[in-house]
Amino acid sequence: MLRMRTIPEAAAELKANDPQTAVTPYAIRQMVLSGTIPCIYAGKKRLINMDILERFLNGQENSGVKM
After folding, report:
1. How far is residue 8's CA from residue 47's CA, in Å, rounded to a whole number?
2. Which of 5, 8, 10, 27 is deepest in the core (most CB within 10 A)?
3. Is the pTM of this model over 0.85?
């Protein structure tokens, strides 16, 4: 099952897992807008796969996802 989150939810989940994280909703939004992290749209909301985001943040930039 995919763990899809909105940008604010993704940032909150990262913060819950690591209270010292410097990753903000703005940073995630910029990654999405630049095409670094893929997203899907649900209405006006952008949904991000948390597994892909976490792999990217762990240094595995090419996570096998094609855009």
Report:
1. 10
2. 10
3. no
Contacts of 55 (CB under 8 A, 6+ apart): 63
Residues 28-45 have pLDDT tens digits of 999 999 999 999 999 999
Rounded Cα distance, 7 and 36, in Å:
14
Q: Where are the domains of the chain?
A: 4-57
Residue 67 has pLDDT above 80, yes or no: no
C-alpha torsion sign, points 16, 17, 21, 27? negative
Q: Which runs of consecutive H residues, i.e. helices, occur in the chain?
A: 7-17, 25-34, 50-57
